[in-house]
TrEMBL record:
<dbReference type="GO" id="GO:0006829">
    <property type="term" value="P:zinc ion transport"/>
</dbReference>
<dbReference type="GO" id="GO:0010043">
    <property type="term" value="P:response to zinc ion"/>
</dbReference>
<keyword id="KW-0862">Zinc</keyword>
<keyword id="KW-1278">Translocase</keyword>
<dbReference type="InterPro" id="IPR003439">
    <property type="entry name" value="ABC_transporter-like_ATP-bd"/>
</dbReference>
<keyword id="KW-0813">Transport</keyword>
<keyword id="KW-0406">Ion transport</keyword>
<keyword id="KW-0547">Nucleotide-binding</keyword>
<dbReference type="Pfam" id="PF00005">
    <property type="entry name" value="ABC_tran"/>
</dbReference>
<dbReference type="InterPro" id="IPR027417">
    <property type="entry name" value="P-loop_NTPase"/>
</dbReference>
<keyword id="KW-0067">ATP-binding</keyword>
<keyword id="KW-1003">Cell membrane</keyword>
<dbReference type="InterPro" id="IPR003593">
    <property type="entry name" value="AAA+_ATPase"/>
</dbReference>
<feature type="compositionally biased region" description="Basic and acidic residues">
    <location>
        <begin position="236"/>
        <end position="257"/>
    </location>
</feature>
<feature type="region of interest" description="Disordered">
    <location>
        <begin position="232"/>
        <end position="257"/>
    </location>
</feature>
<feature type="domain" description="ABC transporter">
    <location>
        <begin position="5"/>
        <end position="220"/>
    </location>
</feature>
<dbReference type="GO" id="GO:0005524">
    <property type="term" value="F:ATP binding"/>
</dbReference>
Length: 257
């Protein structure tokens, strides 16, 4: 199956600072892919480049023709004192019908909030409204950038269940940036670990069942945490973007073998 979005040797820079180097990435229809990595490792920048909001310094991004992407941003700075109903918010920047708005809210688990003021929504409800807005265009690919930041554990778990339902019902692919590693390990088809470049990637199940993984990281959530940490706890000398991760790469290869 051909990819919805693909990158080849993608390099991103801000001024003379390289934040992401030589990234080869692809996501196919229906896949759930999660990007993990420490703060500042380039996760949001990658998402922005994928949706065309950030120009590659080198390499390229290829999108399937006519691809519809729904994007739930990490942060949406809203003036909470500005009176605006959920319904009106859904019609920004493009007007949508009442029926489309109702359907999107229902699918996002926010049915009946249309007439509420945005300022009165809880964090979890607001995330659902953002999801509803992303669903309005019937996306083939849903991109979520730390969509559960600020939600408590049950709130985050409920939100991810919702995402799985949306994928199940609509068949859309899901690409998310997440720090909720237990969710990452259980819900993703593939995990990509970034730190200025791709440290390692693989199927979470295969990775977590591989003897080499167990030997290194143990099992369960603690193992997931170790998967996250071990690539980044080592000493970075010189340019943090240009080092290699021989152990991580060997580990990923063995896990996939
Ligand atoms: N508009 C910008 N101008 C200059 N530098 C930027 C800009 N946006 C991001 N950066 C820098 O690029 C690097 C990667 O940022 P990015 O937001 O992609 O990381 P991240 O992995 O998403 O981090 P976090 O987990 O904190 O959200 C950071 O060092 C950041 O300071």
């Amino acid at each position: 199956m051909s990819a919805l979005i693909e990158t080849h040797d993608l390099t991103l820079r801000f001024g003379d600072r390289t934040v992401l180097r030589d990234v080869d990435f692809a996501i196919r229809p229906g896949e759930i892919v999660t990007v993990v990595g420490p703060n500042g490792s380039g996760k949001s920048s990658l998402m922005r480049a994928l949706i065309g909001g950030l120009k590659p310094a080198a390499g390229r991004v290829t999108r399937a023709r006519g691809l519809r992407v729904g994007y739930v941003p990490q942060k949406l700075v809203l003036d909470r004192t500005l009176p605006m109903t959920v319904r009106r918010f859904l019609s920004l920047p493009r007007r949508v019908t009442d029926e489309a708005a109702r359907e999107a809210l229902a699918r996002a688990g926010a049915a009946g909030t249309g007439q509420q003021q945005l300022a009165t929504l809880s964090g979890g409800q607001f995330q659902r409204v953002l999801l509803a807005r992303a669903l309005l265009d019937r996306p083939q690919l849903l991109i979520l950038d730390e969509a559960t930041a600020g939600l408590d554990q049950p709130g985050a778990a409920a939100f991810y269940r919702l995402i799985e339902d949306v994928r199940h019902d609509t068949g859309c692919a899901v690409l998310m940036v997440s720090h909720d590693l237990h969710v990452v390990m259980s819900a993703s088809d593939r995990v990509i670990c970034l730190n200025g470049h791709v440290c390692c990637e693989g199927t979470p199940q295969v990775v977590s069942e591989a003897p080499v993984y167990r030997a290194l990281f143990g099992e369960g959530t603690r193992g997931a945490l170790a998967l996250y940490r071990h690539h980044h706890d080592h000493h970075h000398h010189g340019d943090a973007q240009s080092h290699d991760h021989p152990q991580a790469e060997r580990h990923a290869e063995q896990a996939e073998a």
